[in-house]
Design goal:
Order of helices and strands: HHHHH
Distance between the termini: 40 Å
Number of domains: 1
Number of strands: 0
Strand content: under 5%
Number of helices: 5
Structural class: mainly alpha
Helix content: over 70%
Shape: globular
């Protein structure tokens, strides 16, 4: 856990010289991050179920075409395809669960919610790097790593703009 705190401080140091979002925007994002995250959890859960269904259907179809027509589909059954597919599913499932765990602390404006979002951010970056490297294609690897770096920079900026909103004090939301 100490390494994660050190990484948090390092990223925060990189972002310190950048301009900040207006205070009203940060406040709005901080107060509404819980339901935005909740929508992301619902979409991710539905996507996860859909991907599993498509994967099972594709594997069934591939098995039928291989056995009926004798088509050699060894590339589809190769280890990298399985590793990439199941690693992506595992990362998606993990980030969905952690995001779901973050909803209530975010609603209560607790630091635990932000910490969980930071963990989701780190796991997403790791997932992107692993996905880029797994196929060992240099052109795809470089373009994917550039995309991961851009996404990580934007994600880090947004999440660290929210950090000050979650100081650990519970906030009672007023009815409007």
């Amino acid at each position: 856990m100490e390494q994660i705190k050190q990484l948090e401080k390092t990223i925060e140091g990189w972002l310190k010289p950048l301009p900040h979002l207006p205070a009203e925007w940060r406040k709005w994002l901080g107060e509404n991050a819980w339901w935005i995250t909740g929508i992301g959890v619902i979409i991710s859960a539905l996507g996860l179920l859909g991907i599993i269904g498509l994967l099972l259907t594709a594997m069934s179809f591939i098995g039928v075409t291989t056995s009926i027509y004798g088509i050699p589909l060894t590339n589809v059954y190769s280890g990298t395809w399985y590793v990439a597919t199941f690693a992506s599913l595992a990362f998606l499932a993990l980030t969905t669960v952690l995001s779901a765990m973050a909803v209530n602390p975010l609603k209560a404006m607790k630091r635990k919610g932000w910490d969980l979002l930071f963990m989701v951010f780190l796991i997403n970056v790791a997932s992107g790097v692993i996905s880029a490297v797994i196929y060992l294609n240099p052109v795809t690897m470089v373009t994917n790593l550039v995309g991961v770096a851009i996404g990580a920079a934007i994600g880090a900026y947004v999440i660290f703009e929210l950090k000050s909103q979650y100081n650990g004090a519970a906030v009672v939301h007023k009815a409007k």
